[in-house]
Hints:
The first copy, chain A, is α/β, with parallel strands linked by helices. Helices cover 42% and strands 16% of the residues of chain A. The first copy, chain A, is globular and about 55 Å long.
Amino acid sequence: xxxxxxxxxxxxxxxxxxxxxxxxxxxxxxxxxxxxxxxxxxxxxxxxxxxxxxxxxxxxxxxxxxxxxxxxxxxxxxxxxxxxxxxxxxxxxxxxxxxxxxxxxxxxxxxxxxxxxxxxxxxxxxxxxxxxxxxxxxxxxxxxxxxxxxxxxxxxxxxxxxxxxxxxxxxxxxxxxxxxxxxxxxxxxxxxxxxxxxxxxxxxxxxxxxxxxxxxxxxxxxxxxxxxxxxxxxxxxxxxxxxxxxxxxxxxxxxxxxxxxxxxxxxxxxxxxxxxxxxxxxxxxxxxxxxxxxxxxxxxxxxxxxxxxxxxxxxxxxxxxxxxxxxxxxxxxxxxxxxxxxxxxxxxxxxxxxxxxxxxxxxxxxxxxxxxxxxxxxxxxxxxxxxxxxxxxxxxxxxxxxxxxxxxxxxxxxxxxxxxxxxxxxxxxxxxxxxxxxxxxxxxxxxxxxxxxxx
Amino acid sequence: xxxxxxxxxxxxxxxxxxxxxxxxxxxxxxxxxxxxxxxxxxxxxxxxxxxxxxxxxxxxxxxxxxxxxxxxxxxxxxxxxxxxxxxxxxxxxxxxxxxxxxxxxxxxxxxxxxxxxxxxxxxxxxxxxxxxxxxxxxxxxxxxxxxxxxxxxxxxxxxxxxxxxxxxxxxxxxxxxxxxxxxxxxxxxxxxxxxxxxxxxxxxxxxxxxxxxxxxxxxxxxxxxxxxxxxxxxxxxxxxxxxxxxxxxxxxxxxxxxxxxxxxxxxxxxxxxxxxxxxxxxxxxxxxxxxxxxxxxxxxxxxxxxxxxxxxxxxxxxxxxxxxxxxxxxxxxxxxxxxxxxxxxxxxxxxxxxxxxxxxxxxxxxxxxxxxxxxxxxxxxxxxxxxxxxxxxxxxxxxxxxxxxxxxxxxxxxxxxxxxxxxxxxxxxxxxxxxxxxxxxxxxxxxxxxxxxxx
Lengths: 455, 455
């Protein structure tokens, strides 16, 4: 007989994973290698180590080691806010009247407010180990910047954050949280970097984008010997660290003998979704199980659903390595939507490859329907979600409603990546009926894609 | 041999208490009864039921029943965000270099951001049971208003919130969270009530106070048959519901064979501290154990340390029942500090009586030292505390540092009542060095106390 499932499944401290899982090692057809922008050849670990810490450069290129041990110092930090709960959404199921069983992995119970801390602490740890003075980074919605500030403060590293301008303005208090953790925050594009000045010249009055902010942070890191650049999404290393989300979720389900049918996550650069699906996808790639995976992206920035699969720059300034990925073109600047964390032109190469192989689906949703789902969920499940996370809620609810129609008792698992405490200006717009939906035209996308690098 | 203690102790769902604990029932000398402002005689349940829901009026007056069963509907709601973790502050202990063992009961992992939800859901439940249309209330820092909005939304009740003006202005996004849950929020004092207009006339330009807001909410509740007033602190019923904090904390400690030496909480109206100490104090009153209890209050509003023990009105407008309590006088309007939730002129009668009997200590602390402790804690333990909660952190750290000096391995337990996500304007002032400490003069206090009702 199946054990009764509590509202929240908390693993014990010793059930917290001892290793991260490297999804690439399970793939027969691996993601294409990163290219060095100087040579347009696969980048070497040596070249990559000029941008990233050595250990992280190594992790970035390693596509064969299945399990990578989590250093004790990082695991100790994880214990402060992990294991994160896997929540059975009993109230939501009841309200929707669905036979589906809905679970969500909640990553918002830490001060950064999201899953980003999982990789931030790892990257700060390796930077500290290498004897660096500090790190530079970009942040969209501000969750990554906050997470990195916390991690740097813990290890005593300087932290310089370039924050996408539209988020900087929408979330005035985010800066203050980062400051509480001792970080320095600059709105991007800024005049403090050459690439920032160039972007401002080309697009005066731009709201910025993750792509711009990345370029600025990379440039800033190269100004001082003791600094390296760190990134909160897109990279293989980040997906590796975020695998802890999926590992915990799967351990919790296994503990209660529950097999997921559908796994859903929002997708900007792909870090939370990549982390969440890792152990499930690995099992499927080993032929041991079958799942339906759904990536949910904003209609304003429809990377998977309307982008193209090609080599592209990861940043607007074209100074980072190139990645083969689904992309709207590194020159594509999405409209200022209320899900700043999903405003990225590309998608991590692992998810891009899985999507290309037909192993994952993708859906694009409009922001007003996302906020409707967010408010509905907040009222029923008592958690105020981040707009980014609410993309997954929207599709999870859609799937649960389908189950109501078909009578199927599917098990739906989705990633609730973070909380919306700093998104109240967006909620206000929604409440006041002032939120508009923007979908880029085919011409806009075609124009940006036409500028992809040629080989 | 003692079991190794994890960073966070999470109870199982079936360890969540089935009953609240009524501390008054354990006291030989009970708190003095509430007085009816119309007769100045002990208030009857009938008279009290005109203000509060019937079941809550009953709980308010019951000082003999030790355990009161938690209705299933409330316990089900509790399961969405409880049991709350009892955290072992390993990182803080290490950083302070103290032999003390520090634990904190963290109540911030829910969208209201504090422990207030524990009583809000109970009060909303009884209002619904009685067939009411809605409730009115006041809120200081906004945590209670948010909690009540969530609870009302869950049970489909209308929710009208009078928010202390200085908090309304300091925390613009709090209103929006309440609105997400469908509540109506009015800054207090307002011109929508007679008592509000009177207060504005007497003190033009006032920042408001909890006392004012209570008066307005009580008046608003009397305008419509289907409404009752609910209150987030001070009352016996609230302490009863908040006993869940202490019950869980004590169960968690008992589970690992840990005996607390010092129990610390911040004290505004006294709800979290009262709830936290309940099972510990009950044990002590039964002669089974001995603890040191410390109430921490802001120096701007030093109710216990500088107030007097006498009958006083619970509200500025003098329309609520009178309570015998430590008070600065219901006419005392504290300076606009950054711990809005602690700006109350009185202290719940249970804690007042215990303090008067010498069973509890009290300390008043300055806000700059509170924010120093808050930032220190945030960086070490990874949780950004509410300014109110940081009062307890400050004294817990002081006690831990004393242990360092004496070498004592004391077990310190404190209540971390909530998170500071909506307090970033206050943190900003602190970072910018613009935060000032204000301590009322003896004359100010004497003047307010001189106006206490005479018998």
